[in-house]
Amino acid sequence: MSQRSHPVDEAAQVHQGRGAVTNPPNRFEPLVYEPDPEAERDDSAPSTLFFRDPTRQIIASNDSPDILFDKSLNPYRGCEHGCVYCFARPTHEYLGYSAGLDFETRIMVKEDAPELLRKELSKKSWEPQLIAVSGVTDPYQPIERRIELTRRCLGVLAEFRNPTAVITKNHLVSRDADILGELARFDATRVFLSITTVDPHLANIMEPRASTPAKRLEAVSILRSAGVPVGVMVAPVIPGINDHEIPRILEAAAAAGAEWAGYVMLRLPHAVGPIFEAWLEQHFPDRKEKVMNRVREMRGGKMYDPRWKIRQKGEGVFADQVGLLFDTAAKRAGLNRRQFELSADHFRRPAEPQLGLF
Asked: Which residues, 6+ apart, have CB-to-CB distance to 278 below 8 Å?
């Protein structure tokens, strides 16, 4: 752990189910902790610890040509939702942690995020543009209910009327329908709910601390009622696990009020591959080889292919079949019928005097 970090609230430790079943070594660390196999084991789920993140810059930039935003804001690092497949897990290794259980039990909290965001947007050098919330880890993970970092950041974005896109798999986003509705008045927001399955049992073992599929669909309805444009993401599509559910997911999303849908194929960069394989071995041992063979088929025989564009959709016969199934199901459900562009036309800096008054 970084010496600059310290617990936010050790009393907030919890003991519930986790997504990863392993805590693999950090690829950057020469030393590895290995528990004594003869020692008494504690099989209870590890508790969650929250740490203050002392970052002084809150808006991150990327130049990935297959991502639809250049700027993003992540109030948290690590994610307690525990989604076993999460492509962001390896980012925790840069903090000295493991991409496994550490990723979902050692959460960095950017307590100064709203103030830092206000400072950035107030600069004359800031050019109004889309900011994605979050882009790496979920901005509505459980601790958000208590400390409201994401809500306060959205409040700043609404005050400046800066275009904002949100993606989450937590019903908690509906709490902020008031702020998102205000942004929507200026065509400055769109929200995507990530829905990987409509099977609550599967969701529970893939995404143990995220909202149930039914609650995510309810959030879609609540946001639409507040005038917020909403879409869904089937992300990731996992061959042999949830690919057959695509039509059902899109039909349910459309019925809830979603207007758009997209998908991303399973991505297994770095440590995510072994973590995912261990999860398959525990929960779907009968399907493990089939799933992994399909993954390699789409990735040129490898576990992961990082090439732009290819990394999101894969390639080959199976990847093409998934794309056709998705496009057909989306069309049948009436999704993706209209284009929608977020607008920065109404951006303002509230502290500035209005020249028209003088």
From this structure: 20, 21, 22
